[in-house]
Design brief:
mainly alpha; 0% strand
Amino acid sequence: MSEKDTSVKKVSWWQGIKSEFKKIIWPDKKTLVRETIAVFVTTVILGLVIVLIDYVVQLGLDHIIR
């Protein structure tokens, strides 16, 4: 590959990156807050489910071992 081919590919790559970034639609503040709250609530609920399952399994293991 010649040096010219390499520079053309780099320029083309950067143009592709720039054009893809122009296509990004950033969320508005209301959407961002709503989605952040949804992620937080989902994380808390899943954490509680994991804690509950862990507690039940631990109780079962304690019952089997004793």
